[in-house]
Amino acid sequence: LSALRMLSLRQLIPCAYRFEASLSRLSPLYTVLPTRTTVSLAISTRPFSVSTTVWKKKESIDKDEEEEDDDGLPQDYKKKTLKIGSRRLDTFVAKSAGVPSSQAEKLVLSGKVRVNDEKTCKKAYNVQNGDAVDIWQKVCADNNELAYAIRVEVKDYEVTSAGYDIHVHSWNKFLVDNWR
């Protein structure tokens, strides 16, 4: 600490910037988090602060993101971005299930689509952030009270010039209660 007290402000700040620059040359295992940390130092009679970037391994960042998304659902989903012209349920079902729009309309009208665990026959419903859409596929062979469905959860959407970019998590064979 006494050696630090001998350093002047002009000597300490360039050292902090050289340290930050040396960290940026590390392998791609390290990345910059968007936050900055201010460290207050009282080396002389006047306190001053140095701002530096917080570095963290990418692996630990990925683990933090997984923990935020732990909602009890299986983690074998696929992240997709659906580019569609509208947020209507029939258009959303057609794009997420990979079926023609006429067949998607029939799925909605026949009650094979649920939004947030409620059957719906309204094909004009606009999907929202946080909606979970289940598209009924078939009854489970082992238990008639369960069925396989395509589950698509809407995470976020953006308005674009061509329509909407809807960011979703999708499961192809999701086990749900048999509502049919």
From TrEMBL:
PROSITE patterns membership: S4
Keyword Nucleotide-binding: no
GO biological process: regulation of mitochondrial transcription
Pfam families attached to this UniProt entry: S4
Domain annotation RNA-binding S4: ranges: 87-145
Keyword line: RNA-binding
GO MF annotation list: RNA binding
Record carries keyword RNA-binding: yes
Listed GO CC annotations: mitochondrion
Protein name (Swiss-Prot/TrEMBL): RNA-binding S4 domain-containing protein
Organism: Pristionchus entomophagus
